[in-house]
Amino acid sequence: MIMMIKKILVLALALTPLLLVSEALDIHQLKQIATRHNVTCILVFGDSSVDAGNNNRLDTTIKSNFHPYGKDFNNGLPTGRFSDGRLATDFIAEGFGFKNVIPAFLDPKINNEDLLHGVSFASAGSGYDDLTANLSKVLSVPRQLVYFKHYKIHLSKYVGLKRAEEIVSNAIFVVSMGTNDFLQNYYLEPTRPKQFTLEQYQNFLISRLYTHAKTLYKLGARRLVVVGVPPFGCMPLVKTLVNQNTCVESYNKLAFSFNSKIKQKLTLMKTTIGLKTAYLDCYYAIQDAVSHPLKYGLRECTKGCCATGIIEYGDTCKDMSTCDDPSKYVFWDAVHPTQKMYQIIAQKGLQSIDENFLL
């Protein structure tokens, strides 16, 4: 089984963590509250769930800057987002009253105005474990943090040091990653299994999250949102690899366990680091969408829109045919959600935000 997975997973897996919601604030209220508490922008770190195109500039095979990716993005142009259109973070930025897309920091077309509203440093194929990123030649979290330092320098030159510090301290930092650490690293490569049991590896990843959070705090972050991993046993690709039509329970149990550890660590961060933290639960959201697609206006939840929908993503999805209506699908390819699903996720995520987090 491992050999079969290794042959197919030639690209780094990056699954989108989804934002779970409870009905609370409407979008208009959210904009008012964000303005009242001087929320300035959204700064994003992570994997393909939030990579807006940084990998386009890297010497890596983990890319999506080709058709049919971007089919529903503005003029139908691929941007490097692993979807047919916008990502959840793009919709979230719009919900806060910023621009309707969060650009990639490495995008050569980025301008000074973009810096004011937030950027993404994320890199598809990355994870909490530096080895995960190194295996795919993408940006590890430490490298993403280096680019964040560059961002601060550019911002200071544009608005002055004092204003730049205010923008950063009032920003919302979003961290979204973790799936690659398990599916592309631990389950495929020999290094980590020799060093850690699965339980120990989870704890190792949590320790890395904690270290990264402390670094972000030193660099000016005060509000941190961490998105949990989804039930990756429900990914069409994973189900195909284990020859199963339903979600793979063992993988989902692992995701659930890891998310529990994230929540515990976030609580600790409030007292030990001084960060305001929030946890966005992806587990229930994607599981519920897969189990009850009609509830969300969706129709197809077992396969992706690209090609056969059960195995293709990234390079293997390149120039392939797609379904007629992606807005009826949960998944765009065999790994990543559609723009429609991202929009649903973002709307619910925005409604779930606690005003205390924005104080």
Automatic annotation (TrEMBL):
Entry keyword annotation includes Signal: yes
Upper classification of the organism: Eukaryota, Viridiplantae, Streptophyta, Embryophyta, Tracheophyta
Protein name, UniProt field: GDSL esterase/lipase
Residues of the signal peptide: 1-24
PANTHER family associated with the record: GDSL ESTERASE/LIPASE EXL3 (PTHR45642), GDSL ESTERASE_LIPASE (PTHR45642:SF7)
Record GO terms (molecular function): hydrolase activity, acting on ester bonds
Membrane spanning stretches: none
Entry keyword set: Signal
Pfam families per the UniProt record, alphabetical: Lipase_GDSL
Family: Belongs to the 'GDSL' lipolytic enzyme family.
Recorded coiled-coil stretches: none
Signal is among the record's keywords: yes
UniProt xrefs under CDD domains: SGNH_plant_lipase_like
